[in-house]
Amino acid sequence: MLDLGQFSTHRRGFITRVAGAIGLAAVAPSRLFAEPSGRGEDPQLEAWFNRITGKHRMVFDATAPNGGMPAIWPRIYLNTMHDTYPTPDADDTAVVILRHEGAPLALGDAMWAKYKFGEQLKVDDNGHPATRNVFATITGLPIPGLGVVELLKAGVLIGVCNMALTVLSGTIAGKTGANADDVKRELLANVYPGIQLVPSGVMAVGRAQEKGCNYCYAG
Question: What domains does the chain contain, in order, with CATH numbers?
């Protein structure tokens, strides 16, 4: 069982902290920022945004793990909306955008173990730096269906920031000597199925609000 009281994060940004540790000069500038594709509108991405429907809509802006709250509050929102306003599920949409140091919440256990995200983000698991994504399925609270994977099962829309993963790939490459493109491909291959890659988290938060979502800062 997961003890939520053991979670902690520093105020300093994860990406900033890693980049500072290795020096930005160690990361090729071309790797830090994804180049615009010039392809125009992405039909798959727009189809994902178009799934934001219903009377009640909320986007949770997750810039950090924040003790798992980005994977808890959406469930609480949906539960209490259903309890307070008896409406069908189609009337309530929750969207989570994982960006900045919240991006690793989209990644599976193998990446947490390999790149020590628990140590970098100061996320503990039973008193030790987490070597797995403890936010995938969250237990220890009297509320079922908590965690990134559980929210996906329930139809919650979750997006992860491509820019954050690009920067993260570059900083990992600079520290380990790996190729940044290879690291990026590895990270993308370990994003949980069902999570949508969005061009940037800030863009996605904005688009969600254009689609009628109210805004909730999730950490």
Answer: 45-217 (3.40.1260.10)
